[in-house]
Amino acid sequence: MGRRRWDWRGPGQRLGRLLGRLRLRWLHAPLLVPPVAVVVLGATWGRHLGLGALLVVVALALVAAVIAAVHHAEVVAHRVGEPFGTLILAVAVTVIEVGLIVMLMTSGGPGTSSLARDTVFSAFMIVCNGVIGLCLLVGGLRHRVVEFRVEGVTGALATLSAVATLALVLPSFTTSTPGPTYSTAQLAFAGIAALTLYGVFVFVQTIRHRDYFLPVPTEPTYRAGARPDDEHAAPPSPRSALLSLGLLAVCLVVVVGLAKTVSPSIESGVAAAGAPQTVVGVAIALLVLLPETVAAVRAALRNRIQTSLNLALGSALASIGLTIPTIAFASVWLPGTLVLGLGATQMVLLALTVVVSVLTIAPGRATLMQGTVHLVIFGAFLFLAVTP
């Protein structure tokens, strides 16, 4: 009777193989979700959902459509490569976010006037603390020290800080209109400024200084039994990329339609639970950014923290730089006043996030310590959103 050979492979590799097998089983899911979601949208359009089983079905279809949309955006992004790939992901996520905000604002009551502000600020905090913190934590745990290019990350953070201040902080201090709002001229200026800064950032990221945003070359360490191609999968074929592009468009339309269908029930549920209205904005941002968070964490596990930061900061910039101008333009037809200015607690959290992010990025290297700090700030944001 032979001796049993000890498996020296780490538990992380065995878990990865198991997840790989499961992923093959569910590989067809992103192809099935769009037509199923279209059927659900057609069957429920114009109907009152209430708070029963029908609402659960529509909510599940909405979540699945969002995840499928980001999956197909990832396929297209993988085809075009970095840094254009992260730009495609950011734009796709922003389209979903804007669609959800507009549908909820047009279908909801007067409490939705601050929904755009709550969603954009939630996306800022989720990305800059939740996503970045989680990526630095898992990257630090697995690789001890992670490295990234300071030139690109600091440029993204400077742009993000300027856009966030113009869009979310200044409205609370202007005097042309009462409350934390902008006048029409001020709103137009803020929208144009945000769009200009985002456009220049995209030009720098993709053309002028593209090398600032490419992953830092690292020496890969392969465990026993691992293959070099585990780190870099082959890009999809042009046919697969075109198919994903078409399904992405379908998913975006379905997400907007399902959001309009489910919005009255969301408002009723929040009111019945007695939760603050800001919870709706947090929920939208969490839903939209969940698949992109998974992509960023996967990149951090492969010691490609630059890709993770590109995804995170690019999403936050797109969220503010594209959402604010779009909502400002749509506010001409949206009911009520557009409230953009943050409260005192939110301003403190935003300022703390910017300061800590600067200290994290400045050395060009990070460990799990920085990740833990960002995650604690993210926990404080979630706690204060529920119990202001």
UniProtKB/TrEMBL annotation:
Its predominant location is: membrane
Give any Gene Ontology cellular component: plasma membrane
- Its domain of life reads Bacteria
Membrane-related topology note = Multi-pass membrane protein
Sequence ranges assigned to domain Sodium/calcium exchanger membrane region in this UniProt record: 53-206, 244-385
Keywords (A to Z) from UniProt: Membrane, Transmembrane, Transmembrane helix
**Gene Ontology terms for molecular function:** potassium:proton antiporter activity; sodium:proton antiporter activity
The record's subcellular locations are: Membrane
User: Where does the sequence pass through the membrane?
Assistant: 24-45, 51-72, 84-108, 120-141, 153-173, 185-204, 241-259, 279-301, 313-334, 340-361, 368-386
Protein name as catalogued: Ca2+:H+ antiporter
Provenance organism = Actinopolymorpha pittospori
